[in-house]
Amino acid sequence: MSKAKNLQTGHIGLNVTDLDRSLAFYREVFDFEVLAEGKEEDRRWAFLGRGPRLLVALWQQSEGTFSTTLPGLHHLSFQVDTVEEVRATEEVLRTLGAEFTYDGVVPHGESGNSGGIFFADPDGIRLEIYAPTGADPADAPTPGAPTCGFF
Asked: Which whole-number Å values give the CA distances from 120 to 87, 91, 129, 137, 151, in the listed order?
């Protein structure tokens, strides 16, 4: 039996309740381009990415809000190069009235150097943007556990 070599994450598909609202959010926050879009009323979807690379697919086929009590997606994380990029995104999110889990950039663990911001999209899907270095070493919001694990 052959195993896949050089395996990478392809894209993430998210169910949303209002495609127009989610498109506006993801384009503003992540600077995604719309690579393709389905506009039939009962089959609305959008492929988002940068350049030719598909990163997120949005599917308008759900009701309610994201549930943290059911099996499935825990959170979706995006890495950027610098903590300054994280802070710039935080400002965009504040102008959009996004809900944050923690106040500002927090380390991934006790006295960690990597860290980021944790927030929710319009449907309550938990998201993270982080940088591998540059977070102020400090007490983590969740002592003794990864910050991104229990929120």
From this structure: 16, 14, 11, 24, 11
